[in-house]
Every structure is written in C-alpha cells, then in structure tokens.
Write a structure and sequence with these properties.
Distance between the termini: 29 Å
Structural class: alpha+beta
Largest sheet: 2 strands, antiparallel
Number of strands: 2
Shape: elongated
Strand content: 5-15%
C-alpha cells in the first residue's frame, strides 16, 4: 500500500492519503440496472390506463415492463 504525505500551510498539520483507496472508488457507474426500474415505472403507468377495464392487464403491463427492462439491461451491460 502506498501513502502520499501532504504538508499543509498550517504548522504541525500533516495529511496521509491512501492512494489505493482513491483508485478503488473511481469505478465506472453501471446504469443498466436503471433500465429495469425505468421500464417497470413505464409498465405501471401504462397499466393504470387499463386498470378500470381489466385489472389483469395492469399486472401484465408490470410484468412486461420488468421483462423489457431486463432485456434492455442485458443489452446495455454487454456494450460496456
């Protein structure tokens, strides 16, 4: 593990910074999981339109939204 010691302008202050932990926190943010939630929300929104006429269509829209979100997440994560 490597440490970098930085001296401040104030007398008596020394900071030790762990450079390995800095590198570990700089990860790519994978937004493919957002696709599942987003498509589920779209499915709920479309399902609310059909809720009065057929409640099973509401459930079907939610399941279709989750399924499309999973497919979209797989496509997004494959490109990254």
């Amino acid at each position: 593990m490597t440490y970098v010691i930085e001296f401040s302008t104030l007398p008596g202050e020394i900071w030790a910074v762990n450079t390995k932990s800095k590198r570990m926190t700089e990860k790519k943010v994978d937004k493919s999981s957002w696709a599942i939630g987003g498509m589920t929300i779209i499915g709920v929104g479309v399902g609310f339109i059909f809720l009065q006429t057929a409640p099973l269509v509401f459930v079907a829209c939610i399941l279709i939204g989750v399924g499309l979100g999973l497919v979209l997440a797989a496509i997004i994560s494959r490109k990254n």
